Amino acid sequence: MEKATRGIALCLCVLLCLSGCSGSFSEDASRRDRQIKIGVCAYDQFDTFISTIVEAFKNAAKQKELDTGISINVEVVGAGGKQNVQNDQVADFIDREFDILCVNIVDRTDTTMIIDKAKSADVPVIFFNRELVREDLERWDKLYYVGAETIRSGIMQGEIVARLCSGEDGMALYDRNGDGKLQYVMLEGEAGHQDALIRTEYSVSAIIEEGIQVEKLGNEIANWSRAQAQTKMKLWLEKLGDRIELVLANNDDMALGALDALEEYGADPLPIVVGVDGTPEAKQAVEEGTMGGTVVNDAEGQAKAMLELACHLGLGTELPEDIVLADDTYIRLPHTIVMKENK
């Protein structure tokens, strides 16, 4: 009888231990079973800034896997600048039952197919870097946008120019013909692209608001491309030569293309050259003094925000406190100025 009692007690202890641990085992198993498939569609995989965001996104996904044990499958495709190709890529991701789509739209005015396809399949879409018009984002409550404060990037370009021209000798260093104005050329990113339109407008207006007079000598679309910008700048130099005192570029690649042409031309001294994005090569040019400054577009911050939002939507995880989802739709990150003085 005593042995039977001891046996029953032992069994009870084992059962109690198992029941006490079952929550832990269940939780661990649940975590291992959690997974998410994210399809990333880039307008052009060869764009320097977009490729930086994509790499940062993949790195952030790997780190989150390590931190949480959640399986995060990220697949990236590039559309080569063709909207019809991107439409097919989105359809393929949806057909293969991806949970979330992150789309760097080719044509921000041509979003109907992607939105309709995603809505019918109930797959949330996070648009990034190229902002849709508000009316399109309001077509469904599972459409989101992650990007930067676009207006500030243009204003900060103007502030860079104003800082360089401040002080007793500042303007004299760049106003080579002494007419009290800065003669400038503008390298625009892309026809109809919101960032290009805003940076073009606000960079110039910010310079004027700082009390600096300007005169436009030319503006050309170079499609965010270093090679195209170099070609455009060569043509300007052949026509205008040393009259160019300021080069405003909607992104760093175009600013660097302008510098390539200026170096080949043998410009001395160099005009002010200003870009946007804060790419490593642009920062190096700022450090060397060949580029007047750049405005950092936080690629890593945008990538992290996009990943956290994807996990929030697909897995129900909480957004970190430093990531704010405004109007249940927008996550916007700030820009910062980089000049030689603050590197």
General description of the model:
Helix 2 crosses helix 12, helix 6 packs parallel to helix 8 (194-209) and helix 9 (226-240) packs across helix 10 (252-265). This protein is 50% helix and 20% strand. Strands 2-1-3-4-5-11 form a 6-stranded parallel sheet, with helices on both faces. The chain has helices at residues 2-33, 48-68, 83-95, 112-121, 134-137, 150-164, 170-174, 194-209, 226-240, 252-265, 280-288, 299-315; strands at 35-42, 71-78, 100-103, 125-128, 143-148, 181-188, 213-221, 246-249, 272-277, 293-297, 330-333, 335-338. The chain has 343 residues and is α/β, with parallel strands linked by helices. The protein has 2 domains: 35-148 and 299-333, Response regulator (Rossmann fold); 151-297, Response regulator (Rossmann fold). Strand 9 (272-277), helix 11 (280-288) and strand 10 (293-297) form a beta-alpha-beta unit.
- Reading side by side through the largest sheet, how are the strands ordered? 2-1-3-4-5-11
Mean pLDDT value? 90
Structural class: alpha/beta
Q: Could you say what the CATH topology of the largest domain is called?
A: Rossmann fold
**Biggest sheet descriptor:** 6 strands, parallel
Strand content: 15-25%
